[in-house]
């Protein structure tokens, strides 16, 4: 089983590549050295909470998803969480019901 630092390193690497950033580009955007990014991606560096937050924001991923991807992946995306933030349970249920109806229409064709 991976420890949290190894998981964080793997997720930073995976997400950075998915976005299409080089290590240099991510380092520049975060005002960090490329060596810092390399150390983070290899699990050598033990990042501060502030660093984790900055990276998560730049890579558009929630902190829980970057630290515990196996728990979060496949459940609900950050975009969906942001969309539903502040909505009542009834509003969320209406939207879920609408999506289920749309899925049913697609499969009925």
UniProtKB/TrEMBL annotation:
Domain HTH cro/C1-type: 12-66
SUPFAM superfamilies per UniProt: lambda repressor-like DNA-binding domains
Domain of life from the UniProt record: Bacteria
Molecular function (Gene Ontology), one example: DNA binding
Residue ranges of the TM segments: none
InterPro entries xrefs: Cro/C1-type_HTH, Lambda_DNA-bd_dom_sf
Pfam families assigned: HTH_3
Signal peptide residue numbers: none
SMART domains tied to this protein: HTH_XRE
Protein's recorded name: HTH cro/C1-type domain-containing protein
Origin species: Vescimonas fastidiosa
